[in-house]
Amino acid sequence: MTEPLEVLGLPAVICSSEMTRVIERARKLAQINSAVLITGESGVGKEIVARAIHHFSLRCQKPWVDVSCGALPEHLVESELFGYERGAFSGAMGRKEGLFELAHQGTLFLDEVGELDARMQVKLLRVLDCGQYFRLGATKRTTVDVRVVAATNRDLPAEVRQGTFRGDLYHRLAQLQIVVPPLRQRREDVIPLCRFFMERHHFEKDLTAPVITALENYSWPGNVRELRNVIVSACAISEADELKLADLPEGVRGASSIHTMMDVRSLAQAIEDEDDDGGCGEGLLQEAEKRLILDVLARMNGHQERTAKALGISSRTLSRKLRGYRVDMGANPSLGSELMS
Ligand SMILES: Nc1ncnc2c1ncn2[C@@H]1O[C@H](COP(=O)(O)OP(=O)(O)OP(=O)(O)O)[C@@H](O)[C@H]1O
Ligand SMILES: [Mg+2]
């Protein structure tokens, strides 16, 4: 296994070509001082990418400050970010520097930036535009030089259209963008990540072939976070030297049957057996074909053209077959993967 990449003290497993490209993009964008917005589903590793940007930037020797906008109560966000003067509000016994000041000349990571309320969105926009703000209760402006990196798992452009997130702030935060793909689109990372988490938790176990198949096939809606939980709890429960299918949660275990079904030899045998029983094996063949098509469709994230190409059939044939399975991709692009999970 390749050594994990160390980003500001966080080891990161980067094996797939998709994640290698993401880190390469982070390395390049790190050289520019503009704000970066990192998007991707929950648990994909957006924080690792944010840290990588600071790590590769000219600011790497300067402070890295991170704040989870979703974790702070609304009334605290402002005093945390901007700090306050003594007596600014009851309880402000002394002067406190805000996170913007602490991040001076370095990078401020605004995690879960989509959680900021409308009032804070305006305040943040102002600081980003001019690099100046007032501490709470202050009469003098504070000037900072901070590079902002933000992350969200929300669809901010949609929220801008709905009017719940300011368009001007969105464009200010998203001067540069990095999209972190979900784990199901970079299956090469799955087993290295498993081995990494096992090693971190001091589990010395082998993974049996069906376990590897199930882990690689499962769709991981909770991404790396879910994978870590699954592998750690499976290892904690298992008493054997190797992890077996039965140690995995039911949903993950089920993903191994896709391959079992695709095992050409057992399929051929099953058809022959059905033939011996007087059947013609057609039902089984159709079922196998359906599973294969839906499996590839799920792997291609519902992308019909790529699915057709991978299967070596025309797009027309594919959509005819999908209609036959009553998979309406237009109405619900994720249906393919749902049917398989
Ligand atoms: N490539 C990776 N190598 C090692 N650990 C990883 C990797 N990607 C993610 N993780 C770990 O998985 C967990 C989830 O990652 P992270 O917190 O970055 O997710 P996220 O994209 O910020 O999700 P959310 O939107 O829910 O905050 C963390 O503990 C992180 O360290
Ligand atoms: Mg996060």
Helix/strand order = EEHEHEHEEHEHEEEHHEHEHHEHHHHHHH
Number of E-state strands? 13
Q: What average pLDDT do the residues reach? A: 87
Q: Judging by the overall fold, what is the CATH architecture of the largest domain?
A: 3-Layer(aba) Sandwich
CATH class of the largest domain: Alpha Beta
Q: Enter the CATH topology name of the largest domain.
A: Rossmann fold
Given helix and strand content, the structural type is alpha/beta
Oligomer: single chain
Describe this structure in words.
With 341 residues, this protein is an alpha/beta fold. The chain has three domains: 5-181, P-loop containing nucleotide triphosphate hydrolases (Rossmann fold, 3-Layer(aba) Sandwich), CATH 3.40.50.300; 184-255, Orthogonal Bundle (Helicase, Ruva Protein, domain 3); 263-340, Arc Repressor Mutant, subunit A (Orthogonal Bundle). Helix content is 49%, strand content 13%. It has 17 helices and 13 strands. The chain has helices at 17-29, 46-56, 74-82, 99-102, 118-130, 156-162, 167-173, 190-200, 209-217, 223-237, 250-254, 256-262, 264-276, 282-299, 304-311, 315-324, 335-340; strands at 5-7, 10-12, 36-39, 64-68, 83-84, 96-97, 107-111, 132-134, 141-143, 147-152, 176-179, 206-207, 242-243. The strands form five sheets. The protein has a five-stranded parallel beta sheet with strand order 4-7-10-3-11. Strands 1-2 form a two-stranded antiparallel ribbon. Strands 5-6 form a two-stranded antiparallel ribbon. A hairpin with a 6-residue loop joins strand 8 (132-134) and strand 9. Helix 9 (209-217) crosses helix 12 (256-262) and helix 15 packs across helix 16. The longest helix has 18 residues, at 282-299. The protein starts with a strand and ends with a helix. The structure holds adenosine-5'-triphosphate and magnesium ion (MG).
